[in-house]
Amino acid sequence: MEVMQAPLLEALKLSHAYPLPGSWLQKRGVHEVLRDVSLRVQKGRTLGIVGESGSGKSTLCRMLLKLEQPTSGVVRFAGDDMRTFTAQQRKAFHRDVQAVFQDPLSSLNPRMRAASILAEPFDASGIRLAGDAGRERLAELMKLVGLDTALLSRYPRQLSGGQRQRLAIARALATEPQLIVADEPVTALDVSVQAQIMNLLRDLQDARGVSYVFVSHNLSMVRFLCHDIVVLQSGRVVERGAVEQVFEDPQHEYTQLLLRATPVPDPDAVWGHVERPRPLPVVCEEVEVAPGHFVLREGVAHEDASFPAGRRECHHECVVLCAVVDDWPAGYREYA
Ligand SMILES: Nc1ncnc2c1ncn2[C@@H]1O[C@H](COP(=O)(O)OP(=O)(O)OP(=O)(O)O)[C@@H](O)[C@H]1O
């Protein structure tokens, strides 16, 4: 049985398909990106989403952030179905759920100084920041993410990559959100800065009880930060459960493959080998192999009109993470 604590955010059987080029008029052909994805984010906990490039992680994040509509399925925040949000619920949602993306240069307005970037979420929530109290609030945010207040007058391009991502995190924290969806927040950073940002995220969670959805290719980081994990292959959840349980006893061969490709601090290990996962069977069903630990297994065939006719296997280019770990920073062992 799954732990029955009311989730902060819940996705139920989310599917998403993009129309193939030229298909609007002809009404045929879709690129199915996600299929029947279910997940839960608990209060004060972190859910990791992993999977190869193109498996649908960012699309899933956009749907959780209400930036994109699923083709079918439901997302609930604090028990409320996003499809039927009132204007007031929508406003509260955009205050309570924030995002941090991979590339802060493209997510931060290049024409705004750091102070205006941090003040923006307050404006959007109708909170007036003025005078000393306003300056103090911005200084508090900067301090929270370990940035010097002198940087408030800088433009994003005048900050280092690590400083920019700290600023993006500060902006996400401005409205005191309950959930931050972080889509590969450290991937674009120098490896030595990655550990600092990972520690910052964890400290912020300890201090503020914020929940995270954390997307990463790096399973060591997922193990460091996340409590629960969802493994995506070709847009389907092949395994989900508590991080420790899934890492200690991975049941799906794709999860096993990802874990084999994860760097471990073993100087004798040979890295750089790429293993390709087998395509998912056409018919699958989710099985609970241990309490709260779910695995996608080959299921019994049945007619499914919504599935593109003739499709037999995943059409993504499935390339598994290839870990080249010559230059791991000294802090790496903290993740292991
Ligand atoms: N707007 C779009 N229109 C059509 N196809 C799209 C669109 N956005 C994404 N896709 C396709 O959906 C699939 C999933 O993309 P997505 O970006 O969600 O994957 P991902 O797991 O986040 O990949 P990565 O790890 O490389 O960021 C890909 O095949 C991608 O080409």
Structure description:
With 336 residues, the chain is an alpha/beta fold. It has a single domain (9-335), classed as Rossmann fold (3-Layer(aba) Sandwich), CATH 3.40.50.300. The protein contains eleven helices and twelve strands. The chain has an eight-stranded mixed sheet with strand order 6-7-8-3-9-10-12-11, sandwiched between helices. A four-stranded antiparallel sheet has the order 2-1-4-5, with helices on one face. α8 links the parallel β7 and β8. The longest helix is centred in the middle third of the chain and has 18 residues, at 191-208. The chain is globular. The model is unreliable at 267-272 and 302-336 (pLDDT under 50). The chain binds adenosine-5'-triphosphate. Adenosine-5'-triphosphate binds at residues 18, 31, 33, 51, 53-59, 316. Keywords: ATP-binding, Nucleotide-binding, Transport. It comes from Granulicella cerasi. Residues 12-259 form the ABC transporter domain. InterPro entries: AAA+_ATPase (IPR003593), ABC_transp_ATP-bind (IPR050319), ABC_transporter-like_ATP-bd (IPR003439), ABC_transporter-like_CS (IPR017871), Oligopep_ABC_C (IPR013563), P-loop_NTPase (IPR027417). This is ATP-binding cassette domain-containing protein.
